[in-house]
Amino acid sequence: MREQSVAADYRLTHASTKQFQMARRALNSLQRIIIPGESCVPHDIDVVAKICAHHNHDPAALLEILHDTQEHFGCVSDEAARRIAQDLNISRADIHGVRSFYGDFTRDTDKPKLKLCRAEACQAVGSEELARRLSARGIASETIYCLGNCALGPAAMIGKRLIGRASAELLEAELADD
Amino acid sequence: MTDTPRLFLPRDAAALSVGADGVAAALPQDQLVRTGSRGMLWLEPLLEVDTPDGRIGFGPLCVTDAKRLAETGFPKDHATCLGKVENLPWMKIQRRIIFERCGVIDPLDLDAFKASGGLDGLRAALASNAADIVETVTRSGLRGRGGAGFPAGIKWKTASEATADQKYICCNADEGDSGTFADRMLMEGDPGQLIAGMIIAGLAVGATKGFIYCRSEYPHAIATLNAAIAAWEGRGWLGTDILGSGKAFELKVRRGAGSYVCGEESAMLESLEGKRGQVRVKPPIPALSGLFGKPTIVNNVLTLASVPWILAHGGEAYAEIGHERSRGTQAYQLAGNIRRGGMLEADFGISLRELIEDFGGGTLSGRPLKAVQVGGPLGAYIPADGLDLPMDYEAFAAAGAMLGHGGIVVFDDTVDMARQAEFAMEFCAEESCGKCTPCRIGSMRGAETISKIRDGENVEANLELVEDLCTIMTDGSLCAMGGLTPMPVMSALRHFREDFTSSDAKLRDMVD
User: Fold this and answer.
1) Does B177 contact A146 at a Cβ distance shorter than 8 Å?
2) B interface mutation test: which of A54, A88, A101 has the most B CBs within 10 A?
3) What is the C-alpha separation between B290 and B270, in angstroms, rounded?
4) Cβ-based contacts of B180 with chain A (< 8 Å)
5) Domain for residue A107, yes or no?
6) Domain residues for A128?
7) One CATH from 3.40.50.1820, 1.20.1440.230, 1.10.8.10, 1.10.10.60 for B417-511
């Protein structure tokens, strides 16, 4: 799936405008049969346009636009990046540069649900051991440096829910509830 | 006690992280007020019950206890009863200037904010002129709370004297240092204090636009700030005609995106412009050429939040508080392996030992304390026998450490300091913006070399190499990221050399 979408994307990148539009239409029609969460290309690009408009097409608001896009689709796909570049009148290279610089943005929907703090204050109360236990249970986590819950570590976050005094059992239960 | 006393329960993210919402659901909703946190995080969820004698605390609460307490009318003989909150030793020592209302009022209740004198500083500033505001702040001796401790008055004066069609006030709320959470607590517990401080800064330098750059790891703070700004605008306290004065100030919250280096002021400005968070070469300083090339004040949350009190009580009153050249109060955050972790605001000059032993109660694990890291990932490790250090910018600098943002992370004797030094380099490699070579490459080589030392490979020669590398990073980096990474590394090496040299690589291999 991932390979296919990369190939599709490559074709999109290198196609002429007319071919590009045809390809995009074809991909858009595929949208309904794509399994959600598996790959984020293609998706409803009109949402991206609305996000850009909501931020007045202001290039200074690029991080906000990328955040909204990431939140909506679970990624900032190349297709979304292309639309943002077009609407903000900045280059795709700029978007790619910003997207790849910041840990919050991903090109694909491969971000684990669970964020685990691995910074010093949480290390002092066993975050490394917790990370080992989680991976032993097959639970993927994204490494975060500080969630601001340093007196009640180890700290973790699922979505926007902050969890203090985390243990592998607690996090497993929380993920099951989510 | 009346039959239906008002109940106060924090909605602070730390309290939520240990079940405050569950406790809230078990309490009578019509009596409940959700507040910020008092900072006694080991007692969270901490319920306060209003009585004629003051607020009585119950904590830490679980849902069962909360239900039982609500049914029995909050009896003072319950096991979780702490007595009067104001009388707890942790609270009594404090002098709360910034956190005066935090944990006391609903952070979005503007009437409670106003009734507790929240607008006094702003009103005083509106009645004054720009030069006098700058002068008051200068006289107060207020220094930047972000870590560098630069005098706020000088920064403000520079920006106020610059001529430009637009100036900006940027609040640095990218509190990325591990062990720090005071900014978050204030933004969630009393956002009005920060907003008022930013408007005053705007009046002082002639800026009509402001941004709060808040890290994305703080969704609760972002939500509270946005709600507070909307409420302030709705009341005419913020916008085109602040409190009917005809003065204007526009304020927006911008989210960071998971980059530590964006806490560096010039990287933050780049990020606010929608770019990669790469640091800028200074000069020009932001006060002359900052956001979009315009004169910009960049101050930390706690710096700006100290300003309303200064304006309301005068610069001299603030200057009377503190220690040596560090004036006013500091938010100390006790974190890591500590029995009683949390935030307390007190005068500068209190010793590290008092904070950790008297307030913190020692380590959480009960094992002996081995090291303390003060000032975040770029701060020095201080050994157990070095705790008699007064909390003061100069005293810390003299001891080869830094106060930073006031975060104190405690480690017990199970910590391997060579590993911590390696982590400091790894962290720098991970978070470096990549603009300058000593930081980008140096951190990578540093991590590799310390890894070799931990494996017992050419230990003495490699230690020398690390020291050399640290000197280059300190002297040659563009900003504090690469420039201060050697601080945890070298302090670990200086105080805990045995952790580096007593290589038990084979044993470690077995453990790993």
Assistant:
1) yes
2) A101
3) 9
4) 146, 148, 150
5) no
6) 114-177
7) 1.20.1440.230
